[in-house]
């Protein structure tokens, strides 16, 4: 097979699992993962990039297979010690092994290195087998507009506070990308799209993962300028996300929780949208005008199933 250049737009856990399949399906390809950094947060003085770390640990064979995020064989001594001081926030899972990543990252950022270079440096250890690129070097942090349960006052809270602390329970009125107006695509992103043979939108959260990446000024334009086909995969199977709480995000942006709803939300490239092809789960139907809709099994139960799913997406990209 000729050497392909594949770009995958991804969030955290769903994106990471899908990338395992892409890497297995195209072992000779150059794969660039453009990863959401809207979930990034500073806690206890440390800069944390949950989605980049999910992809790095998963592809580097260092992730906890049960949780699906963070490090295998993790311990939580520092988290307990912080809690003993009453140091907020106590609701965020910071493992001891994981902490080393955030310490190295924060030190490098403080020394002036941009996030893309810091990410490449961290990846030296993990050898993920893909070029791991943040969507932007500039800070963009997703906030969620909710009604404070105590006061009823409308306010914006950090995405992590809504997602992790409150389990996405408060009704989201809107998602706001704080800082996005000053953001640009990270070095390598525009070039990766321009040189791609296939562009895949992972079955990641359409609102707070894929949507956030595409919100970076200039990134959507760079994606659409790609000479390759753009293929998306549905994170919704039946009428629910396979994992996680994407069903809490989609209605807030007026999108039905279905493969068809998300496909229409992304829209046909021929009609101002993103997609040339849309891959939905066996048994689901999706009428997305102007888009080549394919049906294949979309459950990432093991590597073989995930590889087959990636293969189908790459096939759709060649058509
Ligand atoms: P996060 O940043 O960790 O929330 O992860 P992503 O945004 O990358 O991915 C979350 C999405 O992955 C969820 O909406 C899930 O529905 C989707 N997902 C997880 N596992 C599977 C799977 O096996 N198949 C499909 N089609 N989607 C999945
Ligand atoms: Ca995420």
Automatic annotation (TrEMBL):
Molecular function via GO: LPPG:FO 2-phospho-L-lactate transferase activity; magnesium ion binding
Pfam families cross-referenced by the UniProt entry: CofD (PF01933)
Transferase as UniProt keyword: yes
Entry superkingdom: Bacteria
Keyword terms: Magnesium, Transferase
Database matches in SUPFAM superfamilies: CofD-like
Name of this protein: LPPG:FO 2-phospho-L-lactate transferase
Organism of origin: Klenkia marina
Lineage: Bacteria, Bacillati, Actinomycetota, Actinomycetes, Geodermatophilales
């Amino acid at each position: 097979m000729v050497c392909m250049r594949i770009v995958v737009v991804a969030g955290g856990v769903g994106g990471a699992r899908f990338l395992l399949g892409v890497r297995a399906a195209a072992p000779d390809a150059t794969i660039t993962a453009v990863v959401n950094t809207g979930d990034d947060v500073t806690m206890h003085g440390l800069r944390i990039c949950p989605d980049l770390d999910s992809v790095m640990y998963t592809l580097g064979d260092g992730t906890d297979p049960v949780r699906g995020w963070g490090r295998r064989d993790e311990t939580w001594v520092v988290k307990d010690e912080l809690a003993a001081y009453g140091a907020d926030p106590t609701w965020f899972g910071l493992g001891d092994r994981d902490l080393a990543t955030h310490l190295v990252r924060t030190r490098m950022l403080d020394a002036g290195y941009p996030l893309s270079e810091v990410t490449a440096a961290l990846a030296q250890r993990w050898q993920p087998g893909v070029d791991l690129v943040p969507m932007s070097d500039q800070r963009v942090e997703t906030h969620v507009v909710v009604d404070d349960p105590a006061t009823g006052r409308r306010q914006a809270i950090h995405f992590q506070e809504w997602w992790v602390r409150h389990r996405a329970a408060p009704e989201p009125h809107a998602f706001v990308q704080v800082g996005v107006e000053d953001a640009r695509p990270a070095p390598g992103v525009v070039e990766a799209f321009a040189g791609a043979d296939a562009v895949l939108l992972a079955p990641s959260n359409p609102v707070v993962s894929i949507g956030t990446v595409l919100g970076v000024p200039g990134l959507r334009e760079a994606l659409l300028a790609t000479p390759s086909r753009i293929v998306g995969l549905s994170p919704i199977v039946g009428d629910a996300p396979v994992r996680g709480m994407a069903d809490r995000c989609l209605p807030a942006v007026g999108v039905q929780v279905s493969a068809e709803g998300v496909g229409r939300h992304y829209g046909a490239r021929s009609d101002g949208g993103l997609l040339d092809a849309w891959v939905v789960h066996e048994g689901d139907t999706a009428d997305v005008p102007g888009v080549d809709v394919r049906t294949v099994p979309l459950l990432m139960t093991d590597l073989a199933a995930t590889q087959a799913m990636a293969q189908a997406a790459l096939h759709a990209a060649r058509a």
